[in-house]
Design brief:
The structure holds two protein chains of two kinds. Chain A is built from eight helices and seven strands; from the N terminus they run βααβαβαβαβββααα. The longest helix of chain A has 14 residues. By secondary structure, chain A is α/β, with parallel strands linked by helices. Chain A has one domain: Aconitase, domain 4. Chain A has a seven-stranded mixed sheet. Among the domains of chain B are: 151 residues, 2-Layer Sandwich (Aconitase, domain 3), CATH 3.30.499; 176 residues, Aconitase, domain 3, CATH 3.30.499. In chain B, 33% of the residues lie in helices and 16% in strands. Chain B has 17 helices and 19 strands. In chain B, strands 5-4-3-6-7 form a five-stranded parallel sheet, sandwiched between helices. In chain B, helix 2 crosses helix 5, helix 6 runs parallel beside helix 8 and helix 13 packs across helix 15. The longest helix of chain B has 17 residues. In chain B, 61% of the residues are buried. The chains are: A alpha/beta, B alpha/beta. At the A-B interface, helix 4, helix 7 and helix 8 of A face helix 2, helix 3, helix 5, helix 10 and helix 11 of B. Chain B: Heterodimer of LeuC and LeuD. Chain B: It is an enzyme of class 4 (lyase). Chain B: Keywords: 4Fe-4S, Amino-acid biosynthesis, Branched-chain amino acid biosynthesis, Iron, Iron-sulfur, Leucine biosynthesis, Lyase, Metal-binding.
Chain lengths: 201, 479
């Protein structure tokens, strides 16, 4: 997995609440057996007309935001389907950080497996980021995961919270499976106990 | 395998404790997974990961695969799937199941169906288990008092390789439905009404335990409908404590324990309830008598109203929901103040892991019996599994649907997410017994109104959103 340490980039505002994973990557793009190449279909039905032309006023189609690496989003981002294609599409497009007041549980987990940092902020602070993002390409937000800070374009610093284990994994690009494999002994002894206690499992 | 045994615990606490392999100082836990369900859409990359690292599936006997999302629901699909990408995904699952030696129900098998219907039907899902699947509606299995939730593809690979999941414990939430439901009100109306009350993020960070008289009075099918949509309320999982109904449902199923193991299992299952005095971090109570047959009007499952209501105005909402409601109304082609019952429809879809079980088909057939659907309407029943389909044919339900003008399809996810050819056209308006009314969910530009099977059947007869109680009043024997 790609490490996440610091990021300085253009933030795109998406104030709509309840942006679901069907919006992030519609189902017709779930038929792939690969992880890569989904960025071109990110937000497909919001971003493109049915004839394939761009929807001019969709935020990521505006010149100022085409190279965005951060999204500032409305409440409950990533709700709905568990499809990991959503973070795959975001990462493939170049989005490495999403800022909101809340995320749906499965999407939130999936981000950390793909080097994307989802940041939860209180509403007032998310709104400050939103205002900053609305300034366009000149408003770059800086993210420092180690320090757990966001620096807005005017220099204002916002601190964010993150689970220490997840932070450690992101900073070091650690593979969960590798970490768990180190506990193979504990899993095996659990299975031995399980075979005694609940043999029907 | 259990800790904190002296302190009063919730059902969730008990299942959690019984599956804890390891706990770090910061509360990050390794949880053992008893059943891993797999389908064709969210698993290919996980199996590819195993191949690349040379890892086997740790517990193939606890892993169950079935193709459901992509499969056509028309005859001949066992010979050939026309859509090339869908065919490749289904063939990849065939090959992965074979190569890694996991339990498999291919499309040619009568037991094939939606993964969340097959698991309980075959007795793979049992009380007190941990059940995961790369699908958010895994919450369905919580109806058995199993801790069940959706995971992403990286986690699918993690479970395949280690039979565990890295987790942090959620908080406990209780949703109590007191009293009894009124006639015409079903499990779907309960679960939608709860989401309407708490919002789609109301359960975020929680595992919900549904309880109360109205929940106890539901059949296992109804309980599965309730838990299925826990995810739409934002919860990691929904749970219902197992009882005699649960045990009777499970008894004798192909993969349920037998003989002495059954007795041992039953003894443990009977301890799976929330202790008196156990702590819930959030409690929501709804009177069963207050729940009406409901429909959704917007593009979020929280956009729920009783069928007797009118389309709301965006100004009735607060914050970001104002803009979201405007966008929803435009997408749905609706005007504030319009009576919900005046909304005319083009299509009815009965099926999905939410409402594709035998009881759902019975409820819809009871409304449709001896009647015809509205002229020009497109109506489709997609049973949740081949066995549900066979049972419905045996009970004469299939003939009722066919006589009424419904298409009688083969099992799969179908129009719930429209990955197969069953899709809405732009602007096409559908009453659907599925779980999501998101923009484009049932086809780009398609307009979805979520409802119960009985409400969907009522709408099929009249051609507009309809209060099923009015049809029942005409024919009291249906009540």
């Amino acid at each position: 997995m790609d490490k996440f340490t610091t990021l300085s980039g253009i933030a795109a505002p998406m104030p709509l609440v309840n942006i679901d994973t069907d919006m992030i990557i519609p189902k017709q793009f779930l038929k792939t057996i690969k992880r890569s190449g989904l960025g071109k279909n990110l937000f497909d039905e919001m971003r493109f007309n049915q004839d394939g032309t761009e929807v001019a006023d969709f935020v990521l189609n505006k010149p100022a935001y085409r190279a965005a690496t951060i999204l500032v989003a409305g409440d409950n981002f990533g709700c709905g389907s568990s499809r990991e294609h959503a973070p795959w599409a975001l990462a493939d497009f170049g989005i490495r950080c999403v800022i909101s007041t809340s995320f749906a549980d499965i999407f939130f987990n999936n981000c950390f497996k793909n080097g994307i940092l989802p940041i939860v902020l209180p509403e007032a602070e998310r709104d400050l980021c939103m205002k900053d993002a609305e300034k366009g390409a000149n408003a770059r937000i800086e993210v420092d995961l180690e320090a757990q800070t966001l620096t807005l374009s005017d220099g204002q610093v916002i601190r964010f919270e993150i689970d220490p284990f997840r932070k450690h994994c992101l900073l070091n690009g650690l593979d969960d499976i590798g970490l768990t494999m180190e506990k193979a002994g504990a899993i095996a002894s659990f299975e031995t106990q399980l075979a005694q206690a609940r043999p029907w499992v | 395998m259990s800790s904190n045994a002296s302190k009063p615990r919730t059902l969730y606490d008990k299942i959690w404790d019984a599956h804890l392999v390891d706990e770090q100082a910061d509360g990050t836990c390794l949880l053992y997974i008893d059943r891993h369900l797999v389908h064709e859409v969210t698993s290919p990359q996980a199996f590819e990961g195993l191949r690349m690292t040379g890892r086997p599936v740790r517990a193939p006997e606890k892993t169950i695969a079935v193709p459901d999302h992509n499969v056509p629901t028309t005859e001949g699909r066992d010979k050939r799937i026309d859509n090339e990408e869908s065919r490749i995904q289904v063939e990849a699952l065939d090959k992965n199941a074979r190569d890694f030696g996991i339990n498999y129900y291919p499309v040619s098998d009568i037991r094939q169906g939606i993964v969340h219907i097959v698991g309980p039907e075959q007795g793979w899902t049992l009380p007190g288990m941990t059940v995961v699947c790369g699908d958010s509606h895994t919450a369905t299995h919580g109806a058995f008092g199993a801790l069940a939730h959706g995971i992403g593809t990286s986690e699918v690979e993690h479970v395949l390789a280690t039979q565990t999941l890295i987790q942090k414990k959620s908080k406990n939430m209780k949703v109590e439905i007191t009293g009894s439901l009124r006639p015409g009100v079903t499990a779907k109306d309960i679960t939608l009404s709860v989401i309407g009350a708490t919002g789609t993020a109301g359960g975020t960070g929680y595992v919900i335990e549904y309880c109360g008289q109205a929940i106890r009075e539901l059949s296992m099918e109804g309980r599965m409908t309730v838990c299925n949509m826990a995810i739409e309320g934002g919860a990691r999982a929904g749970l219902i404590a197992p009882d005699e109904k649960t045990f009777e449902y499970v008894r004798g199923r192909p993969h349920a324990p037998k003989g002495a193991q059954w007795d041992a299992a039953l003894n443990w299952w009977k301890t799976l309830f929330t202790d008196e005095g156990a702590h819930f971090d959030k409690v929501v109570t709804i009177r069963g008598e207050d729940i009406a047959p409901v429909v959704t009007w917007g593009t979020s499952p929280e956009d729920v109203l009783p069928i007797t209501d009118v389309v709301p105005s965006p100004e009735q909402f607060h914050g970001g929901k104002v803009e979201a409601a405007k966008r929803s109304l435009e997408y749905m082609g609706l005007q504030p103040g319009q009576r919900l019952q005046d909304i005319t429809i083009d299509t009815v879809f009965i099926g999905s892991c939410t409402n594709g079980r035998i009881e759902d088909l019975r409820a819809a057939a009871a409304i449709l019996k001896g009647k015809k659907i509205k002229d020009g309407l497109r109506a489709m029943v997609v049973p949740g599994s081949g066995l549900v389909r066979a049972q419905a044919e045996e009970e004469g339900l299939a003939q009722i649907f066919i006589d009424a003008g419904f298409e009688w399809r083969l099992a799969g996810c179908s129009m719930c997410l429209a990955m197969n050819p069953d899709q809405l056209a732009p602007g096409e308006r559908c009453v659907s017994t599925s779980n999501r009314n998101f923009e484009g969910r049932q086809g780009r530009g398609g307009r979805t109104h979520l409802a119960s099977p009985a409400m969907a059947a009522a709408a099929a007869l009249t051609g507009h959103l309809t209060d099923v109680r009015e049809l029942m009043a005409q024919e009291p024997e249906l009540a």
